Amino acid sequence: MSPYIISSGQAAYLTINGKKYLNLCSSHYLGLGVNPRVKKAVKAAVDKYGIGTGYRTLAGNHNLHVKLEEALARFKGTEAAVVFTGGYMTNLAAIQTILTKDDVVISDELNHASIIDAIRLAGIKNKFIYKHRDINNLRSQLSVVSGQLSQALADGSKRRALIVTDGVFSMDGDLAPLPELVKIAKKIGALIMVDDAHGEGVLGRGGRGIVDHFNLHGQVNIEVGTLSKAFSVMGGFITGKKELIDTYKTKARQLLFSNALTIPDAAAALEGVRILTESDELVKKLRENTKFLKSELKRAGFDIGQSETPITPIMLGDEDLAKKFASALFAQGIFASAIVFPMVAKGKARIRLIPSASHSKKDLENAIDKITKVGRKLLKK
Ligand SMILES: *Cc1c(COP(=O)(O)O)cnc(C)c1O
């Protein structure tokens, strides 16, 4: 558990142990957690409906859940959506509901822990873990196992193969090679699933996510999103064709045997989706801030990796150096996480900065100035 106790909202600044710090380490990309419209919608919903809901299959299927699913499906440009109480739960449901132990799964080695756990939970034996974003490695694994794979897919087609990837990888901010993965999925007759946790509200037109970014509408079977990053609440969702979503609605154990989203969560998420559907103002602001932060850090000579998203690593390599860097920034009023093993491989330690739409240019100028000074001192440049 973090020793830092926060006593403010997730805005441009955080109050930590009673003091004010510039917030460069949360995934509240759009500031929706403190957005006045979202707060107002939550208050109105609580006044009207109270707090709790229930099991949706029994007596807790609330009109806010239904409206949220309709709004999400429209926003993502898919036929239907189903919501769960967390991104982690959603990945478990997305995989466990449709795959059994005899099916085949093909997964990026750096996929999120919830995807790895979902594959375990489904008991899948035929796992092919390819090197991070490495299509050639994936292809060569497929050719080695092609006999096994075609057998798995051929017999009456009851068995399935699934290619699964994070859309945005959260430690580096790099993107899955989704167009190539879609091609391979088509070629071998596999389903394809993308976990767009860090792409929702960030990538694509108006933050519609990675499928929109690559213009792959209708070509990705299962799109998972979370409500805990850009939407700033809790919950997760799957979007896709109506038939598939109906399967999840009737069969997912994470829905049948677990309570539904509360009223405040559902109301906040719904208002967040409405805000993004109406305007791309926040997404634009996020992109401007990201561009500014990255270009200034590059100009100052930092190695900021291969990110294509607001996730901005400052590559340091050494673990102690990364920890020292984070403490020095903290001492100067900047909260940024040191990312070390096991979150990243040994020797790949870094500081991870995440700008948001809540930051002003001045906030970022101040941060860049301090980061540069700390860098000069610690890296002896
Ligand atoms: C954060 C995250 C999750 C988990 O979402 P929660 O809503 O926090 O449970 C799943 N997948 C990815 C890629 C994530 O970044």
Layout of helices and strands, plus pairs?
Blueprint: E1 13-16, E2 19-23, H1 36-49, H2 63-76, E3 80-84, H3 87-96, E4 104-108, H4 113-121, E5 126-130, H5 135-144, H6 146-154, E6 161-166, H7 178-188, E7 191-195, H8 210-213, E8 222-226, E9 236-240, H9 242-251, H10 253-256, H11 263-278, H12 281-299, E10 312-317, H13 319-331, E11 334-335, E12 337-339, E13 349-353, H14 361-379
Parallel strand pairs: 2-11, 4-5, 4-6, 6-7, 7-8
Antiparallel strand pairs: 1-2, 3-9, 8-9, 10-13, 12-13
Helix pairs in contact: 1-11, 2-11, 3-4, 12-14, 13-14
The structure holds pyridoxal-5'-phosphate.
- Low-confidence blocks of residues: none
Write down the secondary-structure element order: EEHHEHEHEHHEHEHEEHHHHEHEEEH
Instruction: Give the strand content.
Output: 15-25%
Structure ligands: pyridoxal-5'-phosphate
* Total DSSP E strands: 13
Number of helices: 14
Helix content: 40-55%
The separation of the N and C termini measures 34 Å
Mean pLDDT: 95
Approximate shape? globular
